[in-house]
Each structure stands twice: as C-alpha cells, then as structure tokens.
Amino acid sequence: MLAEALARHRWWIALTLLGIAAAAVVPFVLMPFHVRVGQMILLSTGLGLAWTLLGGFAGYWSFGHTAFIGLGAFAAGLFEVNALGTEFMRTDPLLGFALGLLAGMAACAVAAALVAWPILRLRGIYFAVAMLGVAQVLSELTNSIEAFQGSLGLVLPRIPAFGLRTEAVFYYLLLIAAVIILAIAFLVKNARIGQGLAAMREDEDTARMLGVPTERYKITMFVLSAALTGALGVIYAHSLGYITTGSVYRTDFSLNMIVYNLLGGIGTLVGPLIGAAIMVLLTQVVLGSFLNLHMFLTGAMLVALVVAAPKGIMGGLAGTWQSWRRRRTAAP
Amino acid sequence: MRAPILQLTNVTKRFRGLVATDRVSLTVAAGSITSLIGPNGAGKSTIFNLVTGYLPLSEGEIRFHDERIDGKSTVALARRGIARAFQIAKPFPDISVHDNVRIGALFGRDGRRDVDQVTERALALTGLEDFADRPAGDLTVGFLRRLEIARAIAARPILLLADEPCAGLNPAETEEICDILRRIRARGTTVFLVEHDMEAVMRISDNIIVLDAGAKIAEGTPGEISANPAVIAAYLGTPDAA
User: Fold this and answer.
1) Do B92 and A192 count as a contact with CB atoms less than 8 A apart?
2) pLDDT by residue (tens digit) across B49-102?
3) pTM of full prediction above 0.95
4) A207 interface with B at CB cutoff 8 Å
5) Per residue in A226-247, pLDDT tens?
6) A31 FRET partner, CA 20 to 30 A, in A181, B22, B114, B242?
7) B140 part of contact set with chain A, CB < 8 Å
8) What is the DSSP string of A15-64?
9) What is the rounded distance in angstroms from the CA atom of residue B66 to the CA atom of residue B77?
10) Which member of A195, A203, A209 has the closest CB to residue B78?
C-alpha cells in the first residue's frame, strides 16, 4: 500500500523534497525578519497538519487545540527547570531540550488519552466546543496553580545555537518538525487507517458497519495530533524564551489551525502549507503596515475565499481539474 | 433442510414503554434468501438493528453460526461476516465509487487479503465498473443502491442484511437488484431481506417471515405466505376492523 502510494505521488514527493531543500537555504539568503516570517509559516504549517490528523482526516474539528501548545510548552519548561535543573541544562543543553521535548509530547499524549474517552463520544459541534472547554480548563489551571508559574511566567533554558543566529536555530527546528509531521500525515493518509478515517469522516455509523474500528482510530489520531501539537508548542515556547499562560494558551492559535486548513483545503497535505503561507504573509508582510485595517482586510479576504472556494484552494483546484478531465473525456 | 446461520430466540426490544419486538423467534437458513416483511412499524428495522449490534437487546438471544452475538459491537460483527446495505443509501459522497467499495474490502471479514480483486469482483457483480472513478455523490438513486450492496459484499459477508434495496426504484431497476441478490446467494452468501415490494419478495425469497406490531405472525414459502389469512389481514385489514 505504501509503495503504491509512493509511486502514485512521486511528483508531489519530488516537489516536496525540492521545497525542503529550498527552505533549508532560506536562513543564509534572507534577512532575519524574513527568516522569522519563515519560522511562523513553518510553525503554522506544522500546527495545521497536526490539527488535520484529527480534524481533516477523521472529521473531528477541535476548536481548542491550543490546549496542547500550552500544555506541551509548560510541561517541557517545568520539566527542564525543575526536574533536570539549571546545572544539567547548562552542561548538556541539547539533551535537556530533547528530554523536555519528549516530556512535553508525553504530557499532551497522556492528557489526550485521558480526555479521549468522554470527549470523543461527542460528535460535530459538541466535540468542537468541548475542546474549547478543555483548552480553557488547562489554561485556568496553569494560571491559578502557583507551581505551574502560568501567571508569573517561566523562563526557559537556552538551547545551543551551533554557531547560527537564534532565529535560524528555531527556523531549522520548526522545519524539521514540519517535515516529520508531514511525513507522518502522508503515512497515515496512505495507510489502511487513512482509508478508515476517510470513511469515518464521511459517515461514522456506516464506517462502523463496514468494520472500521472507529473508536480505536479516533483515539489514536487524537493522541497523535495532541503529541505533535505539543512538540510544536515546546519549540515555540523555547523560541519565546519566557512564557506565560497568555503567550501559549492562545485562542487565535486554535482558530488559525482551522483557518489554514479551510483556506488551503481540508483533509489535504498541501492545504495547511498553502493556508499558513497565505495567512502569515498576508498578516505579517502585506498588511503589516496597515495595522489598523489588517484584521478587517484579512476577514474580508477570508470570507471572499471561502465563498469562492468552499473546499479550499486545493479542493477548488481538484474540482476544476476533474471537471476539465470529464469534459475532455466526454468530447467526441 | 439447510442448517441455520442466524437464530433469534424470544428477542424483545423495548423503547421505554413501547415494545418494538415482542419475543420474536426466527431462523435464517444458510445459503437462502429469507425475507422479513410486515406493515410499517412492524419491527423489521429494529430486528436488523439488533442483529447488527446497533441496538442492545432487552431480552432474548441472537446466535450467528452457533455463537451468541447479542452484546457484541457492530465492528466485531462486521469482522465475523455480518454486513448491511442500508435502506437510505449512505455512500461516502466525496470518495470515488471504487474507493467506497474498497473500504468494505479493507475492513470487512478477512480484511487486507486480496483487497483489489475483491473490490473489482464486487464492482463487476453490481455492474458499477464503468462508474468506478466517479465520486459516489454523483450517482443516481438506482446506482446508489447498487453501491450500497457492492460495498457490503466487498466486506466478504457470510450474511448480508439488505434493508429495502428496491425502495423507490422502477420495475427494471428492481429486477436488476433482484438479479444481483440472486447472484450473491449463488456465491454462497445468505441474504436476509427487508422489502416492501411484494412482487420482488415473492419472486426471489426461499422463505418469508411476517411481522406485525412487533410479533411474528407467519412464516413459510412465498406460496404459503400469499395464501395465509393472518398475513392478508395484517396487510389489508379485516372487515371487523373497518
């Protein structure tokens, strides 16, 4: 199945590898500001892809995925500062960061597994709103419990720069993370589980009737999506250096993950990249000088795009391609 | 007498105060087309929902191949070889016809084995090969019914529950569905059918079970059922009831 998928998508894979190679030279040729914009595109792409593992593939839209950005960030930060300690982080910062990353991912995976049973019994808008609640509860707990340092703030240990500028280090970390998440999403989409998830997204009851283990699949995807979102949260937190509840439990993160997918094409692998690139370039570069108007213009553009292409840019392109092919084959 | 493949014993389903099925006992013989008929509200769909694990029993027991299956999940039953084609076609509309059927082959009984051949065979048996690349949402009602059956048989069922596959179809389409069901039986799959089109039921059934108001009122061959006074009364009413 995988070999067949690799052969079928060989041109996309070649294009992706070229894109990764091009992205790898960005920090050497662009100004630091543009490298930071690249960082944001990579972070947003990674978040969009991690969200789509559950939302795009299985049809379970989460309105509160920022829960895992915040949880990953604080779990890693507290683990590095309190469990490993300043001395360990000074002597072996790379290992410390790697262990912090694993701790952040594990915390998100465990939290997702714990809430999965009650929360994934809900469908549609009920699940979406329940996730909003999970994010709110975690955010409040981080803020109110003194040991978590959410209101006071937490200074994260520095990670080694390997002679690179700080923005380049985080750019590469986010590039690696985005590529790994993309590879995982590709494997999932093209494996047996991906077919089952597609069936589930279309009609969960019928999928069960056909033998798709829907409960197991959605819990697996929820935990995987949470852990990967958590990993991005850990990297993002380190790029900030100092985090508070408000800087990592952000409602706009949750909403943007959905927007990237809607804009680029929900359930596709390229969609989140296209959506993230458009949104980040639009808000940070094109409209960067019109701060008083930029939310209005962004909103207006989003409405126009959703009306023009309800299945996102990739969905719209696929539809145009299919109708062109049909016309071509129907022609005498 | 063929061996029984499905046995319901004193199956009762209550929805709060309403008794949907009342101590229904019935047997479906292996390799047969057995039809379950009755007026609206007789409990036919409830029986299908109980057999496929969509609803839990209130009382009684259901056996499939001598194994007690009441209480088992829908997924577990699909893996054991019970598939269902729904009354209202439920295709995966954005997925191609081929991939809809392939999902049945991937996850049903013996999933993963010969998936491509099983998919092609199911498409051929239902006459859907020419539509394989189309999104399922583009199909007409008649072809959606075929897709429903194709997807169910791709799951390699031992027992196929077909829920009103002829509803809303014209006579020619109905005959095609009957042909498909006969071919499925000829391949060794038992068909348990719920259908309102009496002509179709009489033509293809080996055995007919009649329900009325949640209880079994008759069972027999098409000839016996069409002459049964209780069945005639259930369908047409009695002079006293008027």
Assistant:
1) no
2) 999 999 999 999 999 998 999 989 999 999 999 999 988 878 888 889 999 999
3) no
4) yes
5) 999 999 999 999 999 999 999 9
6) A181
7) no
8) HHHHHHHHHHHHHHHS-HHHHHHHHHHHHHHHHHHHHHHHTTTS----S-
9) 14
10) A209
